[in-house]
Request: fold
Amino acid sequence: MSVPATRVAERVCPVCGGSGEHRLTTTDRNRGIDTERFAYLTCRTCATLYLAKVPEDLERYYPPDYYPLGAEGRAIQSERAKLALLRRFVSGGSLIEIGPGAGGFAGEAQRGGFDVRVIEMDDGACAHLRSLGIQTFQSAEPDEMLAVMAPSDAIVLWHVFEHLADPVALVRAAAANLRPGGVLLLAVPNPRAFQLRVLGARWPHIDAPRHLQLVPAATLLRLAGVAGLAPVALMGADRTGRDWNVFGWQHLAVRLNSAAARRRAAFYGAAILATALAPLERGGLRGSTYTAVFRKDVAP
Ligand SMILES: [Zn+2]
Reply:
């Protein structure tokens, strides 16, 4: 099925406004919504890897099953690990999660004593979150929503930052919303990943066209610094990061082996490969993802 090319003009770097050079071209390999081709550029100034042209009908690439509502209980171990990670930097108080999806982490944080609010754009996800008793604010522009919300002690985005149209506005709005001493936690795919170098356009974390930009850690640190946020941790090898590394290899292996009978073998083979590569991926922040934590300066 051919789809009319309804595209806006080629973007400049969404982080620094610099120009980009072509890095790779791919299709929606993860979900196969259509056969449209998407180019990604690397910013010559800040090395952000970004989608050259954002489809005007981007919402079409988020099908109804994008949010596995009701599945939030199945991944409880990883949600607990995420909460334990956050607690290393903030013990409690008011927490805002942006893009909570099915609400697994938000629910766990609420049960763990945080006063939780979430910002979510999807209708179905919002209804689901409210049914779980989570205070839900519906918006596709989290920076604008943050500007009118009461201050918080922590703002978290688990693999959401790369989906946002204006990542700079988000960091600024988060910095403005946080109380002095509050923390911003961002878990994102890593454009300096070893897997990206090896797999190129086949790397699952490209996730075209849903991932609008993959920001290198050094660039994110500069961006946060300008907004008044000081880095307190940069992790490429935390538990959730390692899980995502394994996910990358497993996801690829399953996709490359279309025969159903071979899928299981491919899945476990990839897990072994991921284990073997783990030291290399964890060294020097070359993993598939990284998690950065910033703290708002206590006012002078
Ligand atoms: Zn840039």
User: Anything to note?
Assistant: Residues 13, 15-16, 18, 43, 45-46, 48 surround zinc ion (CB under 6 Å).
